[in-house]
Write a structure and sequence with these properties.
By secondary structure, this protein is an all-beta fold. The protein has no helices and eleven strands. The chain has strands spanning 3-6, 9-11, 17-23, 32-38, 45-51, 55-58, 66-71, 76-81, 90-100, 103-108, 112-116.
């Protein structure tokens, strides 16, 4: 599957952005859908994910500010980001994963840059 991420950009602290990840085929076949981010000089970290189509989880640093959702008809996974902080500055990557017989197979988008700055 090919993933195309979009929606990044420059935003002031306290602002909002909506990231979208469009898959080249149905997302219903994937067990986990998520967004990761990597800030300069830091390791990639999980931001939010949807497991088995409905269960969501978030990094503590974004709880209450970010919301992950999916649109099966459009084959997209979205990340609504509100009350953005400078610490949210990073390249954001979408991820779809299938899990079979205990093995995980990941697909990654190309990344979209989010810069939070005044």
């Amino acid at each position: 599957v090919q993933l195309q991420a979009s929606g990044g950009g420059l935003v002031q602290p306290g602002g909002s952005l909506r990231l979208s990840c469009t898959a080249s085929r149905s997302i219903l076949r994937f067990d986990v859908m998520g967004w990761y981010r990597q800030a300069p000089g830091k390791q990639r970290e999980l931001v939010a994910q949807i497991i088995s189509g409905s269960t969501t989880s978030y990094a503590d640093s974004v709880k209450g500010r970010f919301t992950i959702s999916r649109d099966s008809a459009e084959n997209t996974v979205n990340l609504q980001m509100n009350r953005l902080k400078p610490d949210d500055t990073a390249v954001y990557y979408c991820n779809l994963a299938r899990i079979s017989l205990g093995l995980r197979s990941d697909s990654w988008g190309q990344g979209t840059l989010v810069t939070v700055s005044s």
